[in-house]
Design goal:
By secondary structure, the chain is of the alpha/beta class. About 40% of the residues lie in helices and about 20% in strands. The protein has a single domain (about 5-210), classed as Rossmann fold (3-Layer(aba) Sandwich), CATH 3.40.50.300.
């Protein structure tokens, strides 16, 4: 039986019980709808009451273009080694452990295509943190430190033609011409998508994004 959005809300609520803080990870290939799902979950769970759910995207841990240039990796921006995976894992650990202070996480400015420090505040009374990104289940390098910091990981997926269409449209929205967007998706993003797809079976739950929103 397909998972409904109400099912997801109930499952997410159940992660943060007894006053403990939980971290829910949402992963999936580029363009699969991770951010859309995470934002809707946070919005619906918070409702009109005092916010108790925070959204902390992984994208804030992109390396800056200047560092990618230094490393010779800018032409494949978005690949696993173009992020600060160790820094991301350390933040997730702190979110579990630090319940007294506001924790500031970095964000990612899509227009500039650059990370920005300290723009995502997580208040002490946040009981559930929703984080999303491509490589939450990757077992290589510093990425292997991420999964132990997550209470559950959901894998978000879309049929391939629709995922690619949305991804091309997103690149166009943020400044690439159509041919450039298609080339980037099929060269760089698709290689990353295949890497992420190989982690699907490690997820606690698979969410068919086109069936829940």
């Amino acid at each position: 039986m397909p998972v409904t959005f109400d099912d997801l809300l109930a499952r997410a609520r159940g992660l943060a019980t007894g006053g403990r803080r939980a971290v829910l990870g949402i992963t999936g290939s580029p363009g699969a709808g991770k951010t859309t799902l995470a934002e809707r979950l946070v919005r619906e769970l918070n409702g009109t009451a005092r916010p108790w759910v925070a959204h902390v995207p992984m994208d804030g841990f992109h390396l800056a273009d200047a560092e990618l240039d230094r490393l010779g990796r800018r032409d494949r921006k978005g690949a696993p080694d173009t992020f600060d995976a160790a820094g991301y894992a350390a933040l997730l650990r702190r979110l579990h452990e630090d319940r007294r202070d506001v924790v500031y996480a970095p964000g990612f400015e899509r227009v500039l295509e650059q990370p920005i420090a300290g723009v995502v505040p997580v208040p002490p009374d946040a009981r559930l943190i929703v984080t999303e990104g491509n490589y939450l289940l990757l077992g290589s390098g510093a990425w292997a430190r991420v999964r132990p910091e997550l209470d559950e990981v959901w894998f978000c997926e879309l049929p391939e033609p629709e995922r690619i269409r949305r991804l091309v449209a997103r690149h166009e929205e943020f400044g690439k011409g159509h041919e450039e967007a298609v080339a980037w998706v099929m060269r760089t993003d698709q290689r990353n998508a295949e890497l992420v797809a190989a982690t699907r079976d490690l997820a606690d739950l698979v969410v068919e994004a086109d069936q829940v929103y």
